[in-house]
Amino acid sequence: MTDSLIDSIGRERAHALMRQAVQDAIAELHAAGLPAIGAENGRVCKFYPDGTKVYVDEEEAAGQPHGRSPAPSGE
């Protein structure tokens, strides 16, 4: 039987490669001005390049299903 990739390179090395690939993908999304989608405490959220975190369920409840909630007008 052939070893899996994880078995052949080692679990720690495989995890390091996966971690770096995720960080690279997030950086690419943010460089394009797009949010990365992830989860926190069992809730789906969007992580924007400027550090803003928006929970998708709150966004949908506010009537903003496909974008950021409008910024305050400053009035």
Structure write-up:
The structure is a single chain. With 75 residues, the protein is α+β, with helices and mostly antiparallel strands. 43% of the residues lie in helices and 17% in strands. The protein contains three helices and three strands. It has a three-stranded antiparallel sheet. Strand 2 and strand 3 form a beta hairpin. The longest helix has 21 residues. The radius of gyration is 18 Å and the shape is elongated. The chain starts with a helix and ends in a 14-residue tail after the last helix. The relative contact order is 0.09.
**Regions with pLDDT < 50 over 5+ consecutive residues?**
71-75
Average the pLDDT over all residues and give the rounded result: 86
What form results from the Cα inertia axes?
A: elongated
End-to-end CA span: 69 Å
Q: How many E-type strands? A: 3
In which range does the helix fraction lie? Answer: 40-55%
Strands ordered across the widest β-sheet: 1-2-3
Number of helices: 3
The secondary-structure element order is HHEEEH
Beta-strand percentage?
A: 15-25%
Major β-sheet annotation: 3 strands, antiparallel
Rounded to the nearest angstrom, the radius of gyration is 18 Å
SS class: alpha+beta
In short:
This protein is of the alpha+beta class and 75 residues long. It has helices at 5-9, 11-31, 56-61, and strands spanning 36-40, 43-47, 53-55. A hairpin with a 2-residue loop joins strand 1 (36-40) and strand 2.
